[in-house]
Amino acid sequence: MENGSLDYWLHECVDESSVLQWETRLKIARGAAKGLAFLHKVCEPHIVHRDVKSSNILLDEDFKAHLADFGLSRLLRPYDTHVTTDLVGTLGYIPPEYSRGDVYSFGVVLLELLTSRRPVEVCKGKNCRDLVSWVFQMKFEKRESEVIASSIWNKDKEKELLEMLEIACRCLDHDPRRRHSIDEVVSCLDGIGM
């Protein structure tokens, strides 16, 4: 893909003039969510990706999102009696209980889009924590706006930014039964700014 991976643009690109603006980030989130919805609901048999992360979201010349790397994917056939619970994926994106894993992992990607932080920071000391725990702690402290990357923070867009944060947190709910389905995620993302 012409623009490489989302991971590159969020974490590797050092050129300040090349920072992804909010509108582009929202477009990428919507496109990736629709791709996941296609895998989960439209194609037959349905597919669970099992490794949704920013480095597996590729961007074309127009920054349209494309899901990549299906090496860990599983087909969900109607006659399957169970789905493997083998722990696969990438640290920081794997849900605590592995159920509805793609939605959880996509929630982490949404947090990356909002914060420009990696899911797991490589650092030393007890102040180092994973992105999900940090965001939920900030939310608990009513400091949601402080998690938004300064490069995209805009008071005029605060409502949209916080709407996406709420969608991400619903994807990351500790109780998988309360998590959004991928269809709900698509609908909510499409509703941002409307």
What would you note in describing this structure?
By secondary structure, the protein is mainly alpha-helical. It has one domain (6-191): Transferase(Phosphotransferase) domain 1 (Transferase(Phosphotransferase), domain 1), CATH 1.10.510.10. It is built from six helices and four strands, in the order H-H-E-E-E-E-H-H-H-H. The chain has helices at 6-12, 22-42, 101-115, 131-140, 158-171, 182-191, and strands spanning 46-48, 57-59, 65-67, 74-76. Strand 2 (57-59) and strand 3 form a beta hairpin. The longest helix is centred in the first third of the chain and has 21 residues, at 22-42. Residues 79-85 have low confidence and may be disordered.
CATH architecture field: Orthogonal Bundle
Report low-confidence residues grouped into runs of 5 or more. Answer: 79-85
Question: How many β strands by DSSP?
Answer: 4
CATH superfamily: Transferase(Phosphotransferase) domain 1
The residue-averaged pLDDT reads: 84
- Percent helix, as a range, is 25-40%
Structural class by sheet pairing and helices: mainly alpha
What's the overall geometry?
Answer: globular
What CATH first level would be assigned? Mainly Alpha
Number of domains: 1
Spatial gap, N to C terminus:
30 Å
CATH topology: Transferase(Phosphotransferase), domain 1
Round the Cα radius of gyration to an integer and report it. Answer: 16 Å
Biggest sheet descriptor: 2 strands, antiparallel
Order of helices and strands: HHEEEEHHHH
